[in-house]
Amino acid sequence: MITLEDVARHAGVSLATASRVLNGSSRQVGAALRVRVESSAAKLGYRVDAAAQTLARGASNVVGVIIQDLTDPYFAAIADGAIRSADLHDMVVTLGTTYRDPEREIALVATLNAQRARAVLITGSRVDDAYLLGRLRAELEVYRASGGRVAMIGQDLLGTDTVAPLNREGARELAHAIAGQGHRRFAVLAGPKRLFTAADRTLGFLEGLSELGLPAPVVVHGGFDRDGGQAAAEELLDMGAEVTCVFAVNDVMAMGALAAFRARGVEVPGELSLAGFDDIPTLRDVVPSVTTVRLPLSHMGSMALDLALSSEDAPRVEPVAGQVVLRESVRKLGAPGTAATTTAPAAHTPVTP
Q1: SS3 letters for 262-310?
Q2: Topology given in CATH for the domain delimited by 4-55
Q3: CATH (residue range 167-294)
Q4: What global pTM score does this model have?
Q5: Contact 41, 25 (CB under 8 A)
Q6: Alpha-carbon distance 335 to 15, whole Å?
Q7: Does domain 61-165+298-320 have CATH number 3.40.50.970?
Q8: Which of 29, 227, 245, 255 has the highest CB neighbour number within 10 Å of its CB?
């Protein structure tokens, strides 16, 4: 049986191009390429897959949104933005959760392909694993070759439309802003070593301290969730490290750290200041209010969904900058018992909530 891959190989084009010509995609293919593909299909006796043709013509109104943890407010906010945007496009969302398992993520893409989803939105950090990245890239290529569209929220590693948070830059700005409050001795609850988002934020924070000529922080690795933050904070306290401020590389880790500090009788911010990253909605109800780097989470979900449903052919990368928000959890040293102010170096100006 002659396959679409056979036609693409014979015509000397990509699988995606062959699919766009033969499956009736609305995306344009140059006249010369179209003739080559159609000629190869005729010579080989290729028969068009009616189901694939339906998908390529955009008849499906289903969009798959793949997140890592439904209970994590970060992903819930992004999914909310994607769902709201899907409603505006008259699309129906199928939501899949990976439970932070890369194998399950790959399986969900395959399932959504089998269900003829119009587009797939994947959110969450990639893991530094060439084998897993290659497998996901291959699964996405199969899906896109049949007419599907893909957008990512995270690192630009898979050749798809991508909404890319500027994690490293945001953490660097945060280091400058907290140092502006008089802090000189830091610890970082750094998350998993092979998780790109955690690594980028840790590196950015270290770069910011280095730019200011400050000592390298104490670094403790742990899970990228609340329990991971709590465990890492407990390990830090057991070390007896002399620090004045702790940076957790995401807000849910910061929430776990805050619980650990309270359980040990460590007052925040009186004895130890604390900062996170993301500005998840639940931070509004936390006491003390937590310093963080604000990302427009719901808007990021909407942006990614719009990219996935657009008619543009070439992959686009949309960077998203974070914004430092200094709150009560970071105390200004030299003024005991007072909340942090928004004073910081002029080139690194934080904002108030």
Answers
A1: HHCCCCCCCCCEEECCECCHHHHHCCCCCEEEECCHHHHHHHHHHHHHC
A2: 434 Repressor (Amino-terminal Domain) (1.10.260)
A3: 3.40.50.2300
A4: 0.79
A5: no
A6: 64
A7: no
A8: 245
